[in-house]
Design a protein that fits this description.
single chain; 527 residues; alpha/beta; Rossmann fold; pyruvate-formate lyase- activating enzyme; 2 domains; 7-stranded mixed beta sheet; globular
Length: 527
C-alpha cells in the first residue's frame, strides 16, 4: 500500500504551533508530511509549486482569520487550476464557524475540519488509505450533492499530553539572535469575554474548555529543546498561563522550575501571558524565579464601563497593579488597549489615552474590538441591527459619531504606525523583548548601551503616539469635525507627517535589531 502524503499550508513567519501539532499527529501514524508556508496571496504560485512537487494525497489549509479568507480561497482555486486532484480540506477558527459559507463559496475545497483537528485529520488519512468514505467523521463537514453536511461535533481533547509533541525544525526561530521555541502548557480559557473567538471556540465544541498539560511533560519538552536545539527562550502561547487561583499558579510555576532544573536546564527565559487581576506579588515572584522576563497582559481597556461591556472581570487599578508588580521582579509587560468598541465614547477613549500616557517606558499598541464568528458580541450587534459586513469581515459603526470619526481618521494616520502586523508599535514590542533577552544572557556595558538606545526610541515613539491621539480627540471635539473634506485632509496631512518620522524610527530599529542579532550569536553554544 502506498504511504499517504499530506501537505499542511499556513502562515509560518513566527512558526505555527497549530500546524506543527497537526503534523506531529499524522507523522506519528506513519504518514509523510510537509509544511508549506503561505503568508499572503502573492505567495500562492510558489506555494502551489511546492505542493505539486511533493504530490500529496491531501492538502490541509489553515484559515485562522477572516481577513485571510480570500487569499486562501485564491490559493485553493490556483491549486486546482494547476492540476491538483487530491483531497483539499481546511481548518482553523474560520472553518469552525463559517464552514457553510466556505464550502458554498469554493468548490476547490472538499471538506472543513471544525474545532481541534488532530484526531479528525488522522481519521481522514486512515480512511483514505483504506479507500473508505470519509463521511461521518466527527468534526468534519462535507458535501453531498448540492448540500453541505455537518458531522457530529467532536468534543475538545481532554488529555493534551496524549498528543505527540509538535515537530520542530533543526534550525529554530531566533529573537535577538538567541534560539527560541514556541510552546503550549494548556489549551483554552475560563474567561467569559464576549468578543473572544477562543471562548466561542471552546463553548461551541463542548467538553472541558480549559485543559492543563502535565508539568513533567512540559519539563521534558523544555529540556528537549534546550539540550538538542540550544533553545534558551520559550514563548508560551497559552492565553491563561497564569491561573486564576493564586496558590495553584504559584505551585504550578514552582513545579515547572524544579522539574526543568532536575533535567539540567540551567537558565531558560520565558514570555508568558496573564490576566491583570491574577498578578499578585507572590505570582510575579514565582514567575520571575521560573525565568519569566516578559508578560503579555490582558489589559484591554482602562475604562471600567468598557471592561464590563467586553465581559472582563478586572478594573483599571488591576491593570496598574499588575504592571508595577511585574516590574518589581524585573518582568516587563506589553499589552493592547482596545480603545474602540461599538459603544465607546470619546470621553472613554480619552480615559484610555490618559492611561497609556503613564507608560512611555513600556511597549503597547492600540486597536479596535473586532467581531469574530461565534461570539456573543456578534449576536448582540445582530440583535441591535448594527452588524455590518459578512462572514469575510464583520464590522460596525460606533454609536458615538466622534468616536467613529476618530477611528476612521486613525485608520489613515496609523495604518503603518499601529494597525499592521509589522507596524512600528508591534516592532517595538519585539525589539524591547530582544533587548531583555540580552540583558539576561549577555549582561555588560555593551548590552546596557544597547538597552539605553532601545529605551530612548520607545520613549520618543510613545510620546509621539499619545500626542497624536490627543490631537485627533481635539479635532473630533470641534464643530465641523464630520465634514468629509476637512477630516480627510486632516487625516492625510497627519499620516504624511507620521510616516516620515516612522521611516526614521524604523531605520533606527533596523540598526539596533541587526546589532542584537549579530551579538546574539554569542548566546548560541558552539556546535
Amino acid at each position: 500500500m502506498e504511504k499517504l502524503r499530506i501537505c499542511l499550508v499556513g502562515p509560518s513567519l513566527q512558526g505555527n504551533l497549530a500546524l506543527e501539532y497537526l503534523e506531529a499527529s499524522v507523522h506519528e501514524k506513519g504518514y509523510e508530511t510537509r509544511l508549506v508556508p503561505f503568508e499572503v496571496r502573492s505567495d500562492a504560485p510558489g506555494c502551489v509549486q511546492s505542493i505539486l512537487k511533493f504530490n500529496p494525497h491531501i492538502v490541509g489549509i489553515s484559515i485562522g482569520f477572516q481577513c485571510t479568507v480570500d487569499d486562501n480561497l485564491a490559493l485553493a482555486s490556483l491549486l486546482r487550476k494547476s492540476g491538483y486532484s487530491g483531497h483539499v480540506t481546511c481548518g482553523g477558527n474560520v472553518p469552525t464557524f463559517c464552514y457553510q459559507e466556505l464550502l458554498e463559496e469554493s468548490e476547490s475545497i472538499d471538506t472543513a475540519v471544525r474545532h481541534e483537528g488532530e484526531m479528525a485529520l488522522v481519521e481522514i488519512l486512515e480512511k483514505l488509505a483504506q479507500g473508505k468514505d470519509i463521511r461521518d467523521i466527527d468534526g468534519l463537514v462535507w458535501r453531498e450533492g448540492q448540500s453541505i453536511v455537518t458531522g457530529k461535533t467532536r468534543p475538545l481533547l481532554s488529555e493534551l499530553d496524549s498528543l505527540p509533541r509538535p515537530l520542530r525544525r533543526s534550525t529554530p526561530l531566533v529573537v535577538g539572535g538567541a534560539p527560541i521555541a514556541v510552546m503550549l502548557a494548556s489549551r483554552g480559557c475560563i474567561g467569559e469575554c464576549n468578543y473572544c473567538c477562543l471562548r466561542a471556540f471552546g463553548k461551541d465544541a463542548g467538553g472541558k474548555r480549559f485543559r492543563l498539560r502535565d508539568v513533567e511533560a512540559i519539563a521534558d519538552e523544555i529540556a528537549d529543546v534546550y539540550h538538542k536545539l540550544a533553545v534558551r527562550i520559550i514563548i508560551f502561547q497559552d492565553d491563561l498561563f497564569i491561573l486564576t487561583s493564586e496558590q495553584k499558579s504559584i505551585d504550578r510555576m514552582n513545579a515547572i522550575t524544579r522539574a526543568i532544573r532536575a533535567r539540567g536546564v540551567e537558565k531558560m527565559l520565558f514570555w508568558i501571558k496573564g490576566r491583570p487581576e491574577t498578578i499578585t506579588p507572590a505570582v510575579a515572584e514565582a514567575a520571575s524565579e521560573m525565568g519569566a522576563i516578559h508578560v503579555f497582559l490582558g489589559v484591554e481597556n482602562a475604562c471600567e464601563k468598557r471592561l464590563r461591556y467586553l465581559g472582563r472581570t478586572h478594573d483599571r487599578q488591576d491593570n496598574s497593579n499588575a504592571i508595577s508588580r511585574c516590574l518589581d521582579f524585573n518582568i516587563r509587560s506589553s499589552f493592547n488597549i482596545m480603545m474602540f468598541d461599538p459603544d465607546s465614547t470619546i470621553e472613554e477613549i480619552s480615559e484610555n489615552i490618559d492611561f497609556a500616557s503613564q507608560y512611555f517606558d513600556l511597549t503597547w499598541n492600540i486597536c479596535r474590538t473586532e467581531i469574530y464568528p461565534g461570539t456573543s458580541l456578534l449576536e448582540r450587534l445582530k440583535k441591535e441591527d448594527r452588524l455590518l459586513g459578512d462572514w469575510r469581515a464583520y464590522g460596525y459603526q460606533m454609536k458615538d459619531l466622534r468616536s467613529e470619526m476618530m477611528f476612521r481618521i486613525l485608520r489613515v494616520m496609523f495604518e503603518q504606525h499601529a494597525f499592521t502586523a509589522e507596524s512600528l508599535l508591534n516592532r517595538l514590542i519585539n525589539l524591547s523583548f530582544a533587548r531583555h533577552v540580552h540583558e539576561e544572557l549577555l549582561p555588560g556595558p555593551a548590552t546596557a548601551h544597547m538597552s539605553a538606545r532601545v529605551d530612548d526610541i520607545i520613549s520618543e515613539v510613545y510620546k509621539d503616539t499619545v500626542q497624536k491621539l490627543r490631537e485627533v480627540v481635539d479635532f473630533v471635539s470641534r464643530p465641523g469635525f464630520d465634514e468629509v473634506d476637512k477630516s480627510r485632509d486632516f487625516a492625510i496631512e497627519n499620516a504624511m507627517e507620521i510616516n516620515v518620522r516612522g521611516h526614521e524610527y524604523n531605520n533606527r530599529i533596523d540598526e539596533i535589531a541587526f546589532l542584537l542579532d549579530a551579538r546574539g550569536a554569542k548566546i548560541r553554544p558552539a556546535s
